[in-house]
Amino acid sequence: MSQKTAELKAVSRTDMTRAQWIWKEMKVNKVAYLMVAPYMILFTIFTVMPVILSAFISFTDFNMLQLPPNIVWLDNYITLFFDDDIFLIACKNTLLFACVVGPVSYLLSFLVAWFINELDPRVRAIVTLIFYAPSISGQVYLIWGTLFSADAYGWVNASLIELGIIVEPIAWFQNAEYVMPLCIIVALWTSLGTAFLSFIAGLQGIDRALFEAGAVDGIRNRWQELWYITLPSMRPQLMFGAVMAITGAFGFGGVVTALCGFPSVDYSAHTIMHHLEDFANQRYEMGYASAIAVVLFAVMIGSNMLIKRMLSKVGT
Amino acid sequence: MAKLRTRKHKVVLSRSAGGDAGITFMLVILGAFMFLPMIYVIMQSLKPLDELWMYPPRFYVINPTLDNFKDLFILMNTSWVPFTRYIFNTVFISIAGTFGHLLLASMCAYALAKIKFPGRVLMFKTVEMSLMFHQTVTALCLFIVMAAFKWIDTYWAIIVPAWASTLGLYLMKQFMDTNVTDAVLESARLDGASEFRTFWVIAMPMVKPAWLTLIIYSFQGLWNAGASVFIYSEQLKTFNYAIGQITAGGIKRAGASAASLVLMMAVPIIVFVISQSNIIETMGSSGMKD
Q1: What is the pLDDT of residue A9?
Q2: Closest CA to B211 of B185, B162, B175, B183
Q3: Smallest CA–CA separation between B194 and chain A, in Å?
């Protein structure tokens, strides 16, 4: 047996075809496959398979009852883009949402992390907690509903009346004019999460010697330092943060439902996520809902790829 | 020592006073925006009834009382499923989900980071990719998968998917890449330790901050899990869901509702305060390469 392994080891890569080499490597590392198997099998079942399944179902008119479902090819997609006005509203809202919340929360996370980087560690820990707390506190965002309550007992309405700016209370979350901006504010409030922590850690991890070398090389102020040293040194964190920010910005629907009800007034804050939930959980039109899911999936992956490409140019 | 040099370099680099003032100003404004709503929740939860319905409303509480918390507990005792059952559900789901996740994800992360086998790059790329889309996309077909397993309306529908959540694996693998040195593993292997033993005895103790982070992320997610489409029996629902039902009682429960928000946010915040330095350490290696 031992002689056989020695023989296997002695053969160099050039003596074999690529397939043989891979097969040999696989046999040598059997135990590695055992170690990844439990996680990878579950990951495949609960994450990879649903995505693939959605793609298939989106070509059918599956409704949970009729089996087997009819294959309708691209009908769902055609209806979605050319015959569903609410979907177009949802697209517009989602893009607006993502284009504001994504970049702003990303910048905010970075700026705050950068601002507090040079503070005393104890002070920094407290400030970190203040900024991070809203994102981990579950449903605490409901307090915005109380602050912006529709009657005069709401703190915002009362203050505005007191100051003479308005005469009668505004129903903030039931008014199509205010719903979107307010939801964006609440979204930003809860958005300093994982990306923020990653940035703090990234800034802490930059080698101090780089800054000193920079100072010697003629970097004069903190803005130059930021662009030429800080940003390029933490590019991996910037990438990770971007992924987290984008995913968060697109997946932001629960808060809107909790604050504005479902559907929101005049569909003013109706996002693709809401549209998906509407067709999947209320109408059971799974084929159609899957088509929505596939579109949402494509948009998320696409924008992530785009941003990653852009970020690889930072500091160059 | 290092600190002294930083100070010196600051002098060399001339931090302008204007910049410092501007940054402090920005930080105070943003901090107020983040902090005041949190304070307001606590204020609301401490207000007696007459102050909750005082006009004009005040931000601060004048005569703080714990009545709202008492009301909340009374409301809890009158629910037809005993409230301890909801608490048990949340605790059970959180613990079972978190420990399964920790074990499976660390083992997988170790193999991906430290054993060179064909397919590991593809596997990790797939996991990384899954960070790029939100779970709503998969929720729909997850239901079909759960139905196929006959797991609808059981704890399994919540617990088992939590074992395979992706952020934890990602952070653990990245942390192991930078913090577990190959030389130590190599010497363990030469001494005849099996791969499993090397993982458990050598690698795991070296990544304590990462497993703490994994536990906290997983726990937070499960703790905050509310109503799930997979569960419809009242006896299997979570604490968070039950609290939501109480606060859905409308304006007459404004006080109890604020009290419940305070209770729900206290747990994750306390957990974060205790483990902050470990989480930040883990995040140090969270970066993504292109």
Answers
A1: 54
A2: B175
A3: 9
Residue B165 belongs to domain with CATH number: 1.10.3720.10
Same domain for B124 and B232, yes or no, is: yes
Do B100 and B219 reside in the same domain of the chain?
Answer: yes
Note whether A150 and A171 are within 8 A (CB).
yes
Does the pLDDT value for residue A283 go beyond 90? Answer: no
**Nearest-by-Cβ selection for A143 from B13, B30, B41:** B41
Domain containing residue B263: 76-283
Residue B289 lies in a domain: no
Confidence of residue B7 (pLDDT cuts 50, 70, 90): very low
Smallest Cβ distance to A201: which of B143, B257, B284? B284
CB contact under 8 A, B258 and A204: no
Beta bridge partners of A60: A71
Chain A nearest C-alpha distance from B77 (Å) = 22
Summarised one tens digit per residue, pLDDT across range A184-237 is 999 999 988 889 999 999 998 888 888 888 888 888 788 888 888 888 888 888
Mean pLDDT of chain B: 84
In sequence order, what are the residues at sequence separation of 6 or more whose Cβ sits closer than 8 angstroms to the Cβ of residue A286? A57, A62, A63, A64, A279, A280, B140, B144
Residue pairs between chains A and B whose CB atoms are closer than 8 Å: 312
- Report which residue type is found at A88: L
Structure tokens at A9: 């080891």
Looking at CA atoms only, how far is residue A176 from chain B in angstroms?
Answer: 23
Mutate to test the interface with B, among A43, A116, A244 (most CBs of B within 10 A): A43
B290 found inside a domain: no
Co-location of B152 and B206 in the same domain: yes
Domains of chain A: 1-44 (no CATH), 58-311 (1.10.3720.10)
Exposed / middle / buried, residue A163 (Cβ in 10 Å: 0-12, 13-18, 19+): exposed
How many domains does chain B fold into? 2
In a domain, B224, yes or no: yes
